[in-house]
Fold this protein.
Amino acid sequence: MRSLVLVLLLVSFSSVASADDADEIIIQNDLAPCVTIKMTNVSTKETVVLARPTFELHKAIGECGCFSALASYTSSVKIDGVQQNLQSGVISLKRGGPKTLILASEPALVARKKVRIQLSCTPAL
């Protein structure tokens, strides 16, 4: 009986929140006149939370004020009422299609939270 209780405790403490536990994905698209983002898939690979949205280009993002075809993204969540950036990166928007965005380095950071993805121009150097 004691070993059964130990096994149940281990199972309880070893469960990890999955990307599916995120409450909602909110997209803040500063490039909306040039590109539409359609969220299709959020998954966890090992411990990394990934989004795989599809980007539909209406016109070059240079027409939306960007200095190149590179766009920046940042994923964030509110923790204790404060917006916290989890991950950020740069993607090429020379062509549309599916892209992979890293949202978080561990699933617990997005569990039961609204995840905000902001897309904007990459700053000029």
In short: The first strand starts at residue 24 and ends at 29. The first helix runs from residue 2 to 14. Residues 88 and 109 are 15 Å apart (CA to CA). The two ends are 65 Å apart (CA to CA).
